Amino acid sequence: MNTPIEALTIAGTSLSSRLLIGTAGYPSQRIMVDAIEASGSDLVTLSVRRISLQGHGSDTLRLLAGRRFLPNTAGCETARDAILTAELAREALGTNWIKLEVIGDRETLYPDVGELLEATRQLVDKGFVVLPYCNDDPVICARLADLGAAAVMPMGSLIGSGMGVANPANLELICARSPVPVIVDAGIGTASDAVIAMECGASGVLLNTAVAKADDPVRMALAMRHAVEAGWNARLAGRIPRRGRAQPSSPQLGLVGS
Amino acid sequence: MRGPPHTTLRRSGDDPGPVACEVPSSTDIAIIGGGLIGLSIGWRLARRGFDVTVFERGTIGQGASLAATGMLAAAAELEPGGEDHLPLALESQRLWPVFARELEADGGLGIDYRRDGVLLVALGREEVERLRFRHDLQRRAEVEAAWLSGAQCREREPGLRPSVVAGILCPADHQVDPPRVMAALRRACLAAGAHLVEACEAEPELAGGRVLGVSTPRGLCKAPVVIAAAGAWTRFQGLDIPVRPLKGQSLALRSTPGTGTLARVVWTEQVHLAPKSDGTLLVGATMEERGFDDSVTAGGVYALLDGARRALPSIEEMPVEAIWSGFRPTSIDDAPILGETGISGLLVATGHHRNGYLLAPVTAAAIEQLLVEDRITGPAASFGQARFTPTLEAIS
Hints:
By secondary structure, chain A is α/β, with parallel strands linked by helices. Chain A has helices spanning 29-39, 60-63, 79-93, 113-125, 138-146, 168-177, 191-199, 209-212, 217-237, and strands spanning 8-10, 13-15, 19-22, 43-47, 68-72, 97-100, 129-134, 153-154, 183-185, 204-207. Chain B has a domain at 115-173 and 244-330: 2-Layer Sandwich (D-Amino Acid Oxidase, Chain A, domain 2), CATH 3.30.9.10.
């Protein structure tokens, strides 16, 4: 069976891939472009504060022209900063989508929840499609959805840590209750982490470092593409119940000679 | 490439006196860009008897060439995906001792060529695994790189913080001092008979698919061969060279008898520290996608000082001598763009990214070979602009 998986719809826009991929930290621009191609991703994140918007010969914006961008507010520590950055991104990139990141602590890059809620409220009012990066906390995720977030993006684990989904039970709870798509953002280290996130019920996965810093980013991007599809399909297919004893897969009755 | 930003203190090179500022009506070879790459090519070609004229927009050697740290670090700079560029880097490393000797002789100035090696260190347990990852890559690529314990690192560099838990010594990675190299190159060019034209914008003059020379506000200079070597500014009408400016901020500290200094270049995950024989200690460098925004920022300086202090506590007592920013010319694959452009007579040499000093000799040799033998052989052969054609066609 080689049919494509069901599309992911965010704010009425249909995306063919459930993998969202970042553009930072690749060994070179060529490897970045090739990895993004291999990932099959339909939506690429970029940090408007950390890329040049001037469009020179090998600039990210020029090389990725024509793709659907999800600008982010990486590096912002207050709601005010994040809103200004979102407005800059809207003007520069011509998209009202924003991955909202408001960091409360440089060491852990944990979100500042108070500022995040405030920024979400204001950006939704200003007509943005807001995808906030948040704690893996069911209450915060529900609040963000209440405020009009188009999707919620709880962390798997700390940004860049590669520690996978640290709390699968929380993630399942968030996914089961969320009225908007849940995109697991941050912490994915390798393909199995992405599978687990999807099996927990996530609608999609956003990652960057796991691909950009892999030994072979292009191959890891391909692995992530398959992992996200595998996890999605496994979730829909439904896993068998776990049991403590063996159960032969072939019938035991009617054996020849019995 | 450009005058020093007025807000910034720069290290300055030795000034050997004024250079010819008249635009000649013709020349054999016109080079656009009087930085490290332009002057290296100009010197080698003039030395060979060509009539060479170098056009520089600002002052010779004041752009990225002066902003660099001067590392010749093929092994320490090796990153995943960089294996393809390694033969070029190793070839240039092999050429450096002779290049240095001849440059010092022709230019009559020392360039502080130091063979002490580069030491990469892990500060704290957290960083050891990533250093090990780098060492595995170096071993697979078969470059010289020796794993050291924390104690062995501190034996070699007693000033390092005790949190150094491991290191890699790359003995074949050497260094030079950029202002000295630029001063020597300028003198060597003049001694070999090259003309240097400063404060003069220049563009290739094209007609009918070939180059006629360079046009300047001070008139046309006819030339059968034009070499575009303007670093991150290598952007001319009718020519799509995929380089962008990759900003770096750096600073220079002055070591004192009280502070001591390092014996060799030390790299951490955050910064590299390069001791020069005149007692300065260079701390570099940020990597920022900021276009041509040349401001020196609090965040940049903070990151450099914080990174330096984590490795070498004695920097707290060192006077700050200079702070600056510069623009690396970086291509799509981080490797240089060397050779023909598809326009007859117009050659290019740019895109040297973080490795301008390392790659200057192999670049000059490749362009020299192209002009003399009409071909490039060896590792430099695969770095033509044509490799980007599929990518550029896909996005146009």
